Structure formats: C-alpha cells, structure tokens
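Input record (Table S2, row 308):
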Amino acid sequence: MNPPTPRPQPIGRLAEATGLKVPTIRYYEQIGLLPSPPRSQGNRRLYPDSAIARLRFIRHARELGFEIESIRQLLDMADHPDQSCADADSIARRHLADIQSKIARLTALGEEVSQMIAGCRQSSVRQCRVIQVLADHGQCLGEHLAGSVKINEK
Amino acid sequence: MNPPTPRPQPIGRLAEATGLKVPTIRYYEQIGLLPSPPRSQGNRRLYPDSAIARLRFIRHARELGFEIESIRQLLDMADHPDQSCADADSIARRHLADIQSKIARLTALGEEVSQMIAGCRQSSVRQCRVIQVLADHGQCLGEHLAGSVKINEK
DNA sequence: GCTACAATCTCTAGCGACTAGAGAAGCAAG
DNA sequence: CTTGCTTCTCTAGTCGCTAGAGATTGTAGC
Ligand SMILES: [Zn+2]
Ligand SMILES: [Zn+2]
Ligand SMILES: [Zn+2]
Ligand SMILES: [Zn+2]
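Output record (zinc ion complex):
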C-alpha cells in the first residue's frame, strides 16, 4: 500500500556508491558542502538518495580540478535551476584559464628540465649540467617565470 | 694589510639579493636547508656571502618545481662535487616525468572544461551544459582520470 | 543471549611550502 | 629622545583531504 520508500543509506554504502572515502564525505559535511543527514538511534548518519547525486557532482567537479569554493557556488546554482547560468559559465571559464596557465608554466619547466638532463654527461657532480643549471638561471633557455599561478590538485 | 673581508649581511639584504622573502629564508633555516648563520650581539642573523649562492640555488630549483626534499638531496650533492651525478640526474628525470604527467592530466581536464563552456547556450541553469556535465561524467569526452599525480607548486 | 568482528562515531593532528600576524626587542637617523 | 624601520620568536592559517586513537553501535554466527 505504501509507495516503495528508498531506504536511507549508511555512510559506507554512500562511499561505495560515489567512489569517495568515508572520511571525505564527513569532511564535505563539515565544511557545509553536503547537508547534515538525519541520524539513526545509534547516532549513525542515514543518507537520502539525493546525497548520491550531490556527492557525484562534487566528486566529478573535483576530478575536473574545480576548487571547493567554486563547487559550493556551482551546487548553489544547481539547486536553483531557473536562474541564469552566467555565473556557472564564468566559473568554468576562469577555471579553464587557470588550467591553461598551469599548462604553460609546466611546459616551460619541462623544457628546462629536459635540457638539463640532455646536457649531462653522467660524470661527477662538478660537471653535472643539472647542478650547474640549478646554480645559475642564466644557463636556462627561457624565463619559466615564478608562477603567480598555483599548480595544485591531486 | 687585511684581505678585504666581505661583511656579513642581515637577513633583509639577503632577501633583496635572492628575491626570497625574509620569512621564507627563516623557514629554510628551520627545516635545515640553509645552515644557521652566526648572530650579532643583538641576536640578528648575519649571513656569509655563501648563503646567497645557496639560496639562489634553492630558489631556482623551487621555480623549476623541484620539491624541498629533492632540493635537499641536490644541495648535498652540490656540496660533494667529486661524487657521481647519477642521483642528481635521476632526481631530475623523476621530476620531468612528474611534470609530463601533470601536463597530460591538465590537458585532459582542459579539453573537458572547454567542451562544457562551448556547449553552453547561456540560458538557465537547468539547460546549462556546465552544470549538466558536472552532474554526469557520462557526458564527458574522455576519462580525465582522477590523478594519482599531484599537480602542485606555485 | 553471547561473542566476534565490522562499521561508524568524534576528535586531533599531519601533509607541503610557505604566509600572515602578534608582540617584543634592536638599531639608526634626526 | 623619539620616531620608525628591521628583526626577533612564536603561533596559526592556507587547501583538501588523510590517518590515527579510542569509544560506541550494529550484525552475524553459534
Ligand atoms: Zn649529471
Ligand atoms: Zn632558470
Ligand atoms: Zn551555462
Ligand atoms: Zn567527466
């Protein structure tokens, strides 16, 4: 007679369903990304099904390199689907610019490091190109400028 | 009569000479990258000229993305110039591999994010491609796998 | 019911490489 | 002497988790 009520899930099952670790889910709750679910008699968290979608969203955004603060805003927007998506798009564009800066920086670093390695004749430290270049930026190819951009994430 | 003795420098001048910030220099001392210099009567650090070269080495290596622990080993080698440079080279090769992994990962992310942005018609959140893709990895181009590689540094 | 064992709970601390701030003391010029 | 700059030490914050301790709860087998 009752409509099939989906059972609330304990945190471990939620972790399985989303690919996140249990402490990570608790962490997301702690920082307010995931609403605190109701608890069982014994104080265990019991999640509604909607938590899975929310956590998958978070996980996917993290895998794509979005910062937690951006994800917070994106989730807010996802919760208000009638608003304009301009803000979501600008977050994504900002993120893309960030990714591209990081790639540019890493490419420059990679070239310098490649050159160091290629230039080494495998003898003593005294004659090692790696050590020599590290000691003197003048021997670098280019500027590989100190990043104003942070190259972060897992 | 005396040979021209270079004056020991206070930390601020060292910061100027190396482009590092004063607290950063103290931090490097604290973690044992830079030896503790003698102090003045008033307990100020007074650095010998050799500190400049050492700090420039550190700074340059950091700008090239080497981790502190690698730099510690590289400095040890630089202090023993008669040894083989094999270890220095393998540190550099490892670092290069790391850089290349990061570039690969960022390139994959960048493609996904570009697609999200390009697919958006700038209307409501409900129809926003950015939000839709974040909610469903199935709409991604590829795998942009969760990094075992850390994309770090400034 | 009882006994294992697994899952979950809270809380704290650690990672890397700094950066920021407080509050005290030293130092040089006017 | 006073003003203002530099330096000192110490603590805490950044980011996104992760690891661990120690306590409690839930569950399956007997
Ligand atoms: Zn070499
Ligand atoms: Zn250089
Ligand atoms: Zn949009
Ligand atoms: Zn995806």
